[in-house]
Amino acid sequence: MSSSRGLNLTLKIWRQPGPNARGEFRTYEMKNISPDMSFLEMLDVLNEQLIQQNQEPVVFDHDCREGICGMCSLMINGQAHGPDRGTTTCQLHMRRFSDGDTIVIEPWRAKAFPVLRDLAVDRAAFDRIITAGGYVSINTGNAQDANCLPIARDKQEKSMAAAACIGCGACVAACKNASAMLCVRAKVSQLALLPQGEPERARRVTRMVAQMDKEGFGGCTNTYECEAACPAEVSVTNIARLNREYLRAVVVSEEGV
Amino acid sequence: MADASATAVTPQIEGSPRLKSNAPTGDIQTQWERHKFDLKLVNPANKRKFTVIVVGTGLAGASAAASLAELGYNVKSFCFQDSPRRAHSIAAQGGVNAAKNYCNDGDSVWRLFYDTVKGGDFRARESNVYRLASVSTNIIDQCVAQGVPFQRDYGGMMANRSFGGAQVSRTFYARGQTGQQLLLGAYSALMRQVDLGKVKMFARREMLDLINVDGVARGIVVRNLVTGEFETHTAHAVLLCTGGYGNVFYLSTNAKNCNVTAAWRCHKRGAFMANPCFTQIHPTCIPVSGDHQSKLTLMSESLRNDGRVWVPKRPGDPRPPNEIPDDDRDYFLERRYAAFGNLVPRDVASRAAKKACDEGFGVGETKLSVYLDFRDTIKRDGAAVVKGKYGNLFQMYAKITGEDPYSTPMRIYPAVHYTMGGLWVDYNLQTTVPGLYCLGEANFSDHGSNRLGASALMQGLADGYFVIPYTIGHHLATSKLPPIADDHPEVRGALEAAKGRVNKLLSIGGTRSVDSFHRELGKIMWDKCGMARNDAGLKQAKQEISALREEFWKNVRVMGTGESFNQNLEHAGRVADFLEFGELLAHDALTREESCGGHFREEHQTEENEAKRNDDKFCYAAAWEHVADNQTQTLHKEPLTFDNVHLTQRSYRE
């Protein structure tokens, strides 16, 4: 990459040595960053520099670097996963920034996602919500032939659109109430739309919502920041479905939740 | 079934007495049924007395952990990610094969078996492959029952597509996110068992050693990656479901944290490592853009169903691709392989792309890429149809490269993607250490020297849902497994060894970063152990890796402490193991003096530059036994016999 295209950047990064330690912003100057780098590759370069200077590298969660594992989780200039829509931090590229930019990088901030170190947070609350009911209770070996259960194409498409959630937590980070409604409704909708989900439909939604509240996530006030931040482009129209499912469960269901 | 009656050609290779495949004999179609009947069962009331450790929560690990818990065993499940849902199976795009024959196009269990043996270039164990093909149909049923939203047609029935190397449509898919959806299905089954109290989940734990007692696997040592604390966990059996070792090449399509450490630690505790040189290069990846590159991104090879691969006929043709007329384009796959065209197996497609670039026909700034063009499909079916099929892949490509694949051809280049080698296992998926099982990509068993597209998801789930639940019972029912105290000398020994390695890494205080060693190792591997290999290069690679390893232990700089969340330290431990493993990979490639599947030795090729096997000498699985550090490992051979699909040279031309 020719150096003429390289970007000079100022990074302000949240450094916090441990869960209970005090954190602070630290400033780092970056020279000649290739626009073809991904955002995380830019942080790799920073970390290599820090190691050369005998300083501890910045901790940040990442894994697949192709936008599907949901591990990366950075607040970039106040936006979850940065400025591009439908894009995880790992898929964000430096060509999106300009020479001379200052970039502020923070961890997700939510009561239910405590900071572990620097930019890494604990999202185990999401696993506990799934544990509360985000499944179909079927043991291995019980299944009938797949085609015995026809599923209308539009139902399957809607279910798939909901199932695309990568569990990254951007919706929580973007929400002023730190609500997990988008993420929870994604799983509730996916299964509520399918016949497989029917037998436990009411139990599922009531248990998942109860766990969500217990974890300290806030309520939804329909500002739709979650949808704007969601890298999997899960739509808010279905938060209504979560509410409907919940209401149905507590008012009319005979499932005995 | 033409080949079933053919006379088997069984080369005379002497097998090692240490490798007992325990594969059933006789009619292959009834082997698994008969074997299941012969396996001892654990009484339902006794299952709760056994604990099983499952390391890794990808398709193999999550499905195994959930299924064993459903049976009543107590399961301890471990992953290094922050959640079991993030294991790298999640990134698989294209699909999962199953011999359902829903399309009425001539598919069958036998054909899937045949295709897998042939596609693997006759280096897999027939019995395992047949079982894989026969349980493939159950996998689809199970996943649908869990609520996996597979693609449907308008009548509500399951949709299928054809996939690299197959002439029937047997691939099931959920958009381009099949791995994600299958993994979330297995993950939900796993979390259900957490809810029921049968699985105890340990996330952000990295396995650093295996605990053997009286020669039987009884536990593991892990490090809590957040606190840095070491933990020991004991059990009645250990399942390793820790994925492949593609990151030994530094640049691969694997997730950044994929590593060989758990498998390598088990190898050093007695589990033989088989066929490490069988690595798969995937033809449709986004090319490298610069020195900063941290990983490579694969695009599903389903793209090859509609995209046409070509290079300009004139090297360095300066015209933009859309201005190059068909007469000046070389659609080299269609030209060379009339019957399969753009759908030839991965190894064949990858080498053809490399050949084109090596001969100067490559395109793009680096000249290390070829075109994958959707022009004709868009003209035929319209952009909307193409978007429906490949929308997310096109979007991903545009994000990474800044180019629009609807209006200009994609550029692709091969990258390391999957590793067929792994810990040697018998028919029961047990390694050479009793009580230690290995599932999914981490084992060597089903794909021979080359894996067919959409077969990795199939194998991971087959092992976890439908094989291990049967075979592990036999071990638990027939072995003496006395309780192990936490202060048992073997437990303490493994713990101290793991701590010692971590402390050593932190104490070196050198000048070079971990990443710089990893990159250098990767370059050696890619240049000399990659798509094409030769005797001189492999010998040189071994020397260079050995020298690099020596330097690593003298000069690596690992920052921070062991008592904290320290990603630099995690990486250091993984690179240390890759530096040992890489040398074994090169050695395995050196000793296998033939070409087969993904292992291409330049000295052994046909006149048409295809892989040329040497069945008389190399029709075996090479299982390596660790003897001592920095010493040549001992080779054990498991001869492979082909009683059902007879040994032929692969040809994708006619």
Structural class of chain B: alpha/beta
- Distance, first to last CA of chain A: 61 Å
Could you give the order of the helices and strands of chain A?
Answer: EEHEEEEEHHHHHHH
Count of discrete alpha- or pi-helical segments spanning 4 or more residues of chain A: 8
Can you characterise this structure?
The complex is a heterodimer of chains A (257) and B (654). Chain A is an alpha+beta fold. Chain A has two domains: 3-117, Beta-grasp domain (Ubiquitin-like (UB roll)); 124-252, Alpha-helical ferredoxin (Fumarate Reductase Iron-sulfur Protein, Chain B, domain 2). In chain A, 32% of the residues lie in helices and 13% in strands. Chain A contains eight helices and seven strands, in the order ββαβββββααααααα. In chain A, the strands form two sheets. Chain A has a five-stranded mixed beta sheet. A two-stranded antiparallel ribbon of chain A has the order 6-7. In chain A, a hairpin with an 8-residue loop joins strand 1 and strand 2 (24-33). In chain A, helix 5 crosses helix 8 and helix 6 (201-214) crosses helix 8 (239-252). The radius of gyration of chain A is 21 Å and the shape is elongated. Chain B is of the alpha/beta class and 654 residues long. Among the domains of chain B are: 283-417, Succinate dehydrogenase/fumarate reductase flavoprotein, catalytic domain (Flavocytochrome C3, Chain A, domain 1, Alpha-Beta Complex), CATH 3.90.700; 486-619, Up-down Bundle (Methane Monooxygenase Hydroxylase, Chain G, domain 1), CATH 1.20.58. Helices cover 37% and strands 15% of the residues of chain B. Chain B has helices at residues 31-38, 44-47, 59-71, 109-119, 126-146, 178-195, 261-268, 303-306, 332-336, 346-358, 375-381, 383-401, 456-478, 489-507, 514-529, 535-555, 567-591, 615-618; strands spanning 51-55, 74-78, 96-97, 171-172, 199-202, 205-213, 216-224, 230-234, 237-240, 273-274, 279-285, 308-312, 329-330, 370-373, 410-419, 422-423, 436-438, 512-513, 556-557, 620-625, 634-639. Chain B has a five-stranded parallel beta sheet with strand order 5-2-1-9-17. In chain B, strands 11-15-14-12-13 form a five-stranded antiparallel beta sheet. The chains are: A alpha+beta (257), B alpha/beta (654). Chains A and B meet through helix 1, helix 2 and helix 3 of A and helix 3, helix 5, helix 6, helix 12 and helix 13 of B.
